[in-house]
Structure formats: C-alpha cells, structure tokens
Amino acid sequence: MENLALLSAGFANALTATNLAYALLGCLLGTMVGVLPGLGPTAGMAILLPVTAWLSPIPAIIMLSAIFYGAMYGGSTTAILINVPGEVSSVITAVDGYRMAQRGRAGAALAVAAISSFVAGTIALIGLTFFAPALASVALSMGPPEMLGLIVFSMSMIITLSGPSLLKGVFSAAMGILVGMVGLDPTLGKARFTFGVTPLLGGIDLIAVVMGLFALTEVFKSVASGALSISSERLPPWYRFLTFQELRASFGAMLRSSGLGFLLGCLPGMTPGVVSFMVYDAEKKVSRNSRNFGSGAIEGVAAAEGANNACSAANFVPMLTLGIPPSTSMAVLMSGLIIYGLQPGPLIFEKEPAFVWTVIGSMYIGNVILLVLNLPFVGLWAKLVRVPYYFIASLILLFCFIGTYTVRNSLFDVGTCLVFGIIGFLMDRLRISALPLVLGLILTPLFENFLRQTIGMGGGSLSVLAERPIAIGFLALGFITAAIALYLRAKGAGLARCLDAEEAS
Amino acid sequence: MKRIDCTRGPTLSRLLGLVSLALAVTCFREGHRLWTGWAGSGVMPGLVGVLYVVLAIGFAVFPAKDTPRAAPLEKTQRRGIVTIVVAFAVYLALIQTLGFLLSTWAFLFVATRVMPGSTTIGAFLWAGALSSGSHLLFRVGLGTALPPGRFGF
Amino acid sequence: MRRQFLLTALGMVLLASVSTPAAGQSEYPSRPIELVVPYATGGSTDILARILAKYVSEKKGIAFNVVNRPGGSGIIGVREVLNARPDGYTLLADTHGASTMIGAFNDPADVPFDWRNRTWIGMMDKDVILYLVKEDSPWKTLKDVAEYARQNPKKFRWGTTGRGGIAIPAMQQFFEASGIPADAVADTQVLFKSGGEGPVALAAGNIDFAAQQIPEALGLIQAKRIRALAVISDERLPLFPDVPTVAEAGYPMIDVAGWHGVSGPPGLPRNVVDYWVTLLKEANADPVFRDMLEQVRKVPVFLGPEELRAFAEKEYEKYLDVARKLGWRK
Hints:
The complex is a heterotrimer of chains A (505), B (153) and C (330). Chain B is mostly helical.
C-alpha cells in the first residue's frame, strides 16, 4: 500500500494551482486539436511540442501527457461524427460510431465513447499505479518469438474483418501488406518497391492512407449519394441522447476492452491502433450483439474507445520502465523526460517518485477533466450531423491536407492521401472492405521486425520457437481461431450473401 | 424490388485474380532482387508474393456469383468527383507557388461549390473563412510549417 | 469556364495586393530560421536540435524553429535541405546517420544526392557507445566475449539497431579487432528498430551482447539488469568511473562515435557560416549549454567546418569498409 501513499502525495502535487492549470490547458489544447478533423495525437503533439518547451519538467510532462490523451479523446469525436479518423486508433471507433451517427444516434455514440474512455483510462491508471513494475517484467518476458506468435495470432482477424467475401478481404489485407513494405526497409535500409521514386524511399505514411481511405472516400461517397447532410433522422431531445439500455449494453464491453487493452498495451510495440483492432475483434466474438458489429453497434464504439484509451495509458509501462516507446507520441513524451534528465528504466519509480506519481496523479485528474469538459458538449456536437454536408465536406478536405501534411511536413504524403481517397472510393464501389488493408498495413512492420529478430536469435532459422512455449501457444491459437472463423464463414456463407444483397439495396 | 447484377461478380473476380497475379510477379521479382537470406529484406516480398498466388488461384476457383452492384453514378455525380480530384491535384501542384492561404481558398471554393446544395457566394465565403482561419490558427498561432509559397504566407 | 475565370481573377486580385518582400537584406538573420530534423519527433537528433533551438532562441532572441521531415532513414529530410535555397534560413540538424552513413551504408542508386555536397558548419557533441552484457553474464571483459564468440559463433547472439545506427560499425570494429570474420557471426545478428530495444533484449536474455549509446542503456544499467564492459572513449566517463575505455580493455583500434551538429545546403554564404561557427563555439564554452548536453548524456565537442569535413571523411572510410564486409556495398 506504499503506492497509495505515494499516489496521494502525487495527487497533492498534481492539484497545486500551476500543475492543475497545465493539466487543464493540455486537456483543452489536446481536445481542440484532436477534434479538428484529421488531427490525432501524432500530429497534435508535433504541432504543440514547441509550446511546452519553455516549461519546467513536471508541468511540461503533465501538459504533454494531457495533450496526448486529450487528442486521443478528441479524435474519436470526428471519427464518429464525420468518419474522419485522425489516427489509426480511431478507425475502429468510426466503423460503428459513424453508422450510429448516420442513424441519428450520434449523441449516444459520443456519450458512450466519452464514458468508455473515462472508464478505460481510469482502470488502466489503477493498473499502472499498482502493477507497473510487475508488468515491466511481463513485457520483458515477451521477447521477439512471443511477439511474433501474437502478431500471427492477430492476423486471423483478417478473416472476421473481411466482410461478405473472404477473397476480397484477403486481397485488401495483401494490399495493405504491400503498401506497408514500400520504402527503405526499416532495419536493413534497402529500398523496396520504390521504383526509383525518391519520395517513396520514406515509405507511405499510415495517417495519409487512413485519411484517404476514410475521410476523403467519405466526401466522394456523399457526392455520389447526393446526401445533403450526414443524417436526416430527427435528433432525440437531450435527455434521450443516451438511453439506459444503451449504457447497460455497452458496460460489459467497456470493462472487457479496458482490461484487455491495458494488458496488450504493456507489451513492446503494441500501439493503440493495433490494440483497438485486436480488442474489437475479441469483443465481437464474445458479444451477444456481435451480428450488429460493423453496422452501428454501440458495444463496438465502447470496445474501440475503451481499448485505445486503456492501451495508451498502458503504453506508459514500456516507455517509463523499459525505455521502449511503442508509438511516436510515446517517443515524444520520452524525449521530454530525457531532455529534463529523467532516465526511463526499471528504477524510475524509485529514483523519481515525485515526478512519476505527480504525472500519474495528474492523469487521473485529466481523465475527469476530459469527461466533464466533453460530456456537456455531446448534444451540441451531435447537431453537426444535420449541418449541410458541403460545409463539412470542405472542412474534411482542408484537414485531409493539414492532418497529413503536419505529420511529416510532406506534400507527397498529401498526394498519397488523395490517391488512397480514390482507391478507397473504388474499393467501396466494389464492396471490398478497407479495414483489412489498414490491419495489413499496421501489422506488417511488426511482423517483419519480430520475424527477423526471431530468426537472428535462432542463428538463421526459426528453431528458437521450439524453446518458447508461449510463442507456440499463440501460433496454435492463431491457427485454431482461423480454422473456426473459416468454418463459421463457410456455414454462414448463404446468410452473408443475403445480408450483402440487402445492404446494397 | 432488389436488383442483383450477376454479371458483375465473376468479371470482378477475374479482374482481381489478374491483378493478384501481376502483383505476385512484382513481389517475386523484388524479393529475388533483394534476397540475402532468411533474415533479409527479400523475405517479406516473397511471402506476399505467395499470398498473391494463393489469392489468384482463389479468385479463379471461387469466382463471386452474385455480388450486388453499387448504384450506378449519374453524370453530374461523376463530374463532381472528378472535379474534386482534379482540383485537389492542382492544389498540390500550386501550393508551393501560391502559398497555403490562397491555394487553399481556391481549392475549397471549387470543392464546396461542387457539393450538392451549395451556392457560389456561400462557398466563396466559407472557403475563405476556413482557409484564413486555419492560416491564423496553425501558421500564425502555433507556428506550424505550412507551405508559405512565393509571397511568404 | 466561368469557374476557371473566377479562379484566375481571384488569383490576380490577391497577387496584386501582396507587396513583394524587401530585397537585399544585409543583416543575417532577419527572419525565422528552420532547422530541419530528418527524423521523427522524439529521436536523439530531434532532442539535440530542440536543445540547440531553445538555447539559440533564448540567447540571440531569433526564432529558430525545428521542423521534422522524417522518412527513408533521413534521406528525405537531407535531400530537402541540400536542395533548399542557400540563404541560411534552412539548415540541417546533421548527424553521422544523416551524412556519412547515408553515403557509406546505402546503395548509391537509392540515394538521390551526394552526401559530401553540403556546407559543413560545425559539430556540437559526440555520442558515446557502450558495449553491454546481461548483469549475470559470465563475461567480465571484452576479451571474454571475443573468446566465446570465436569458439561458438553459431550460438553467440548479438544485437544492434538497424542501418544508420552507430553501433553497427562499433560491433564490426570489435569483431575485426578480435579476429572474428564478419560472416561467421552474421547469422546470429539481431537487428532492432529503435535504440531502447537492444538493452531490453539483453536484460531479457534474448541476446548475449550489444552495443548502444548511453541514454537508451542507462536505465537498465542503473537497475543492475545489464552491465557495461567498455566505453568507446579516450578517457573514462564521469558517469561510469568503473567502466574501462576500449583502450584499457585492450582494443585501442575501436574509435567510432556518433555526433550531432549543423550543416546547410551547398554554397552557403560566408557570413552565414561564420555566424553559426561563432555561435556554436560560444555555446560550447557556455556552461549552460554544456549542462543541457550532459543532461541528455552527450559529450560537448566543438569542431569547425573544416575539421568536421575532415572528420566525416575519415569516418566515411571506416563505414564504407564495414558496409563492404557486411555485404551491403560492393
């Protein structure tokens, strides 16, 4: 219970006027940036980093973390309302959230996203408070072979994410893998699939792809459908935005996704993007409402938001205790620590208790701030679905530019976004799901990296896997889930075809 | 009455099969070029090549039978989409000369005007508000390095 | 048609309303300077660039903005700077990885510029490398490691970051000095994407031997999970008084080191170079700046344009040799 004493000291520190002000300011700025369509934590932190450069260590880190989870949070708003995910982690939120918005349930989706983020963030922080050092050793025992197993296991998701046609789904995933390989090989530095085009050496930016496939495609789709606004449904009065049934239905999903998201987030290399896919898929398999996942299930929104918020809090474990930041945003936070001479490592909790516990305390507070800050606005945001679409379309186009440009300051990336907007539109016309593409794109670098390291550990072969029961377990699990999913697919093929036909009408 | 177009499915399958085959060849060539061993850069391209071969066989053996066709596009809609795409491309080509503010204004004006329900004046003003608003917020306020163009803004 | 006309008209009106910037500015710098970091936010070059930017902005009161242009292990950002107008308002946060290593390690066909073709300005710090083993490893010295590797080349697992990492030539110099052929231990090499992963893999027992810069290894060293056998430096570091230098460990020929500094596009005017050389020299003598560097575990070093060029040229030869031995270059 020593941790509780430390945490309460941290709270006392975090609640001093200055620190509280910076947490609040960070949450505000983060949410504002995140709410701008197309700007997620990566772009948001890149833009706001200079703002924090002038502060002393603790306020700077408090503010940077607040910007991080504020932007994470704000990103879900645009994903739900206008199908513009600013980051891979909100792609899954958009899947069910946007469908709900189109049906006039934007308020419910936003409210559940807010509550789920809060619940997940708090659960993850409790985990961080009591188990961080223990989790560090779990993360340590998950070496390259184990992570390879986990990634192979998660590839079985392609089967469930494929939509009506498995072949088209796998085709989409293969496209993602191919796109993920373009550029200099991240560890060996050889140019692959660049065909002599210099900007391609830098690889194809993930956020540009996501913005193209979802945001830009959405604009094209609305031109094609001639829709005048996102939803033509009448909006419910404010007290009916979220019904008790909806809240109750999503409660289980919130808790499960928080737990699983947190555990996965402690492992090396697991970004909120990857984890939200994995958790959503798991939730779909256990949920009573799994049939509606993908067509506006509120549980889906709860699971996606729970997963990515729990994961982003959990990402502090490998970053703080091992010095291996899973995402760019975490790398930025870590560089913040290093600049101030705070050394990440197993001893950081012992050597810098004041710092660590103040930041953790401020994150608890930040979570509350976000909820209080955002829940009242749900009703206002929800009205956006009735705004004439041409206002929104130009906003999306503007942020397709700003959102993709600011990540790497590259016009080429904006061009990539345009190309993937066209590809996304074609895929939509041909009923090829874009989700496997994104999954392939985010799993490829992880897969290749862990595969290569496993081979290196085995002296040129995969032989080392034989000594690794956990890795074998994951691989076996992957093949079993794939087999089951294929079987269910074959059995339900007739049904799926009917559904598909209906959907197209 | 639900309309299901049965001709589209097999044609699409054949097309995707051919695309897979072509990509498989590309992957194998790239994998071969880069081959240095089982931990080298050529492994992934090779694996994806195999995946594409499997896909090509899959599309040949199980062509789709009754994939429903999306509602065909009308002429104005097609023109709308093409206009946005072309305007976006022109925008990217001009932004380094004209700068963020001007070219964004022009691009958003064209794109907004294409959308159903917009008016010329409204589109012009809205595009102006968006571009100058984001210019002020990101460039002036936050010092983001948006492309400045020849005139410095 | 009408739309086109409108567009053109709009362009003309706005063109006319803009006054052209005053020509022939004499005083440098007269507007904000961009320091391009060719890597993502959060890496060590980025950290150093931000430290420099903060110092320069505070000291000189000029706006000195860090802009990240990551991609292609630095190639994208470097190309951008080398093609920029040489007016002193676009500068490069230069490092070993963005200059000599691009030149030596990458296939020239993949690199769209000549790495030498830049205006060298100065070096501000050196990045020192440690040779590391797991805390409970039986090896006490570098010689022990070499002995084991010679006898069990197929079991000896060693790790570094991928291409562009300074640890790669450090490892190769070690193997060469120990008389171990590069291809004997090539199969058991484990490559990591980022610097922190190697020490972690070492602590977890997934590899046996690693070379890494200090910031990424320090946390695990302090926690007694991994142990430093030697440091590539002329003298012992105050941070690790018990860790011998490579010379003391019997390897005087090992001498690679990472560095950070500032460069510009080719043909940078004399006054701009002088301005920055003076500034970097002043910074190097300023205890405030030295403290900032030491806080991020870098060793403050100043080299002027000519020395830096010569230094880079010498490093290039070493790296090229390594690249040939590893079969990366012909």
